[in-house]
Design a protein that fits this description.
Elements: H1 19-24, E1 37-42, H2 52-65, E2 70-75, H3 79-90, H4 95-116, E3 122-124, H5 133-138, E4 142-146, H6 168-178, E5 183-188, E6 193-194, E7 206-207, E8 209-211, H7 212-218, H8 228-235, E9 241-246, H9 252-257, E10 264-267
Helix pairs in contact: 3-4, 6-8
Family: Belongs to the UMP kinase family.
GO molecular function, one term: molybdenum ion binding
Protein name: UMP kinase
Length: about 270
């Protein structure tokens, strides 16, 4: 049997999937690149698609808050994502292709939002520029990017159906985690997480505070954010909670940035 060529290191000869090896490094905490960063994700479907009446007051609030808080603004896709997914699924496109198509739309929203925030230093950045954030923030800029994670053709197969499981909520959370951010705030068009879709059932109950395990155990039919996000939160190193707020109500984002009680908190 041929001898493997090795380079001397502490992982020499490892398969990188051995349980004992993973547990050995479990205590090591990764560095937090921007520990005072707050990631604010603006939903396309819940916010941007409503146009000027909703978007302009929200962006003015975010711009003013950028004077006191380090922020990364992340955009969703919205109705156009739903349209392209509908067409793509009907044509039998694979999940990875659907993910690439959806990403192009959330990026369009990021370009528009960055221009609308230019008064406060709004600057559009690509996914590849995320590690430039420390410098951009020191320059007083307000970075804006789209939330579709760059899995593209390598998107994970969904448990059921064809819709990509990792979309813009997930992308915003992953960016917050890799940067070691202070918080991840999902801006929606409802007051938080409900037991049912409140736009369908007005009598649904608002859940103000809940753990990931409790929420998963409830096995709700509908959620205000991507279900995959809950599993990522369980395994996160830096982020131990995420918050959902209503961006149609002025002042909610400010309260969330200040850590005040508003919306829903989902925690580990």
């Amino acid at each position: 049997m041929a001898k493997r060529h090795e380079v001397n290191n502490r992982l020499q000869g490892e398969t990188l999937v051995r349980k004992g090896l993973m547990q050995k490094h479990d205590h090591i905490q990764p560095m937090r690149l921007i520990p005072d960063l707050q990631v604010v994700k603006i939903g396309g479907h819940g916010t941007i698609d409503f146009g000027r009446e909703v978007v302009m007051p929200l962006l003015e609030e975010i711009g003013e808050q950028a004077k006191d808080h380090k922020m990364l603004v992340v955009t969703g896709g919205g109705v156009r994502v739903r349209h392209i997914l509908d067409v793509g699924i009907d044509l039998g496109m694979p999940t990875g292709v659907l993910a690439q198509l959806a990403g192009k739309i959330s990026e369009q929203n990021a370009e528009m939002v960055s221009l609308l925030l230019s008064k406060w230093g709004g600057t559009h950045i690509d996914s590849a520029d995320i590690l430039d954030l420390p410098m951009l923030l020191k320059l007083g800029l307000l970075p804006v990017t789209h939330g579709t994670p760059p899995y593209g053709l390598f998107e994970h197969p969904p448990e059921c159906g064809l819709i990509p499981p990792h979309r813009t909520d997930t992308g915003a959370f992953l960016m917050a985690e890799v940067l070691g951010a202070k918080s991840c705030i999902l801006v929606k068009n409802v007051d938080g997480l409900y037991t049912e879709n409140p736009l369908v059932n007005p009598d649904a109950d608002l859940i103000e505070d809940i753990t990931v395990d409790e929420l998963l155990a409830m096995d709700l039919e509908d959620l205000v954010m991507e279900r995959k996000l809950l599993y990522l939160l369980k395994d996160a190193n830096s982020l131990k909670e995420l918050r959902i707020v209503n961006g149609h109500k002025r002042g909610n984002v400010e309260k969330a940035l200040r850590g005040e009680k508003v919306g829903t908190i989902i925690r580990v």
